[in-house]
Amino acid sequence: QKEVEQNSGPLSVPEGAIASLNCTYSDRGSQSFFWYRQYSGKSPELIMSIYSNGDKEDGRFTAQLNKASQYVSLLIRDSQPSDSATYLCAVFSNDYKLSFGAGTTVTVRA
Amino acid sequence: DVKVTQSSRYLVKRTGEKVFLECVQDMDHENMFWYRQDPGLGLRLIYFSYDVKMKEKGDIPEGYSVSREKKERFSLILESASTNQTSMYLCASSLARTGAYEQYFGPGTRLTVT
Questions:
Q1: In chain A, whose CA is at the least distance from the CA of B41?
Q2: What letter would DSSP give residue B94?
Q3: Alpha-carbon gap: B41 to the closest alpha carbon of chain A (Å)
Q4: Which of A99, B46, B64, B76 could form a disulfide with A2 if both were Cys (CB 3.0 to 4.6 A apart)?
């Protein structure tokens, strides 16, 4: 069973702060890693993809991958109330499917 | 922009009814997926398809079947709906390009079985 674990929430941060989300995975052969954002009552929306070790930045979002430690993270800089959502970590191995974590709920306090 | 559409946003059905949930994607994606999402249980894969007329069971296929007659369309069928199938159903699609596999989700169908 391929497992994806995320830090348990909820995570509450003040507006303008950095929100840090963590994810570990069990399958060392995993190749591709994704972060999805899901607003309450809505479907998941892909916000970041990362395939190689290191950092990848997109606007206020930075994904970090460390395959040796089997660890992927998402940083949200200058957090805004509109960032309040559940963030899902997803990992692709080699059988067409993604394995999803349970999600971390982020609340940004105005 | 990838677009995945689902036939209904909300659906109410009675126990024992046969239920069809339709999903259409317009990006020529090879892979299509059906999930259900329940509070505390996360996303669970029901079935997926990597080609027309091909289907594979996911983690919770019991009580469900699927049909993929055309590349852009993937249907989920509840043969005899039961109350424990009340859930949010999410369809997704992805390219088959090696190393990628980003999945794009439709808006979801919230099904209530009474």
A1: A102
A2: E
A3: 7
A4: A99
Give the model's pLDDT for residue B2: 67
- Is B107 an interface residue toward A (CB < 8 Å)? yes
Task: State whether the Cα torsion A28-A32-A38-A43 is positive or negative.
Answer: negative
What does the alpha-carbon distance between residue A67 and residue B96 come to, in Å, rounded to a whole number? 23
Contact B104, B1 (CB under 8 A): no
CB B46 within 8 A of CB B58: yes
- For residues A25 and A73, give the distance between their C-alpha atoms in angstroms, rounded to a whole number: 11
B99–A44 C-beta distance less than 8 A: no
pLDDT tens, residue by residue, B28-60: 898 999 999 998 888 999 999 988 989 999 999
